[in-house]
Amino acid sequence: MSPPPPRLTLVLGGARSGKSAHAEALVMACPAPWLYLATAEIWDDEMAARVGHHRARRGEGWITQDVPLALPEAVAAAPGPVLVDCLTLWLTNLILGEADVAAATDRLEAACAAAPGPVVLVSNEVGLGIVPDNALARRFRDEAGRMHQRLAARADRVVLTVAGLPLVVKPQAPAGSPP
Asked: Whose CA, among 1, 31, 63, 69, lies 20 to 30 Å from 135?
């Protein structure tokens, strides 16, 4: 069995990079039950199929809560290990709901810092492509980049997944070392 993840891990990657499966394995290194905070809203059959695939892959031991907007509150209330999948869907929900993204990120940071068990955050790395051709997409990309930077600075470990391979970008510091 792998050692449990540090208090806060950020797992980034592109579409189908293996980020969710990697994050699930990190959380499953802790004793069950594991809390899965799902931020997706299901608007069509294709999205329902994606969610079904994720649920089937997770199997037993997982408790799933759907939190399209109330993510900080759900993290704060988590009794143990928690997996958030994914931050960019949460960001989409915030932007489309015209919420204050910076304030919501403040609340998420505080919730992660106060969580009693490990928190693993999954998010899509969207800043590696071309500049989007419309204002909403550019805002989304910029807000995601700012959110990722803030959470990566706070995280004990940051992992970038590429082609199913986890690449540690920020390793966990040894116990007792300065931050």
From this structure: 69
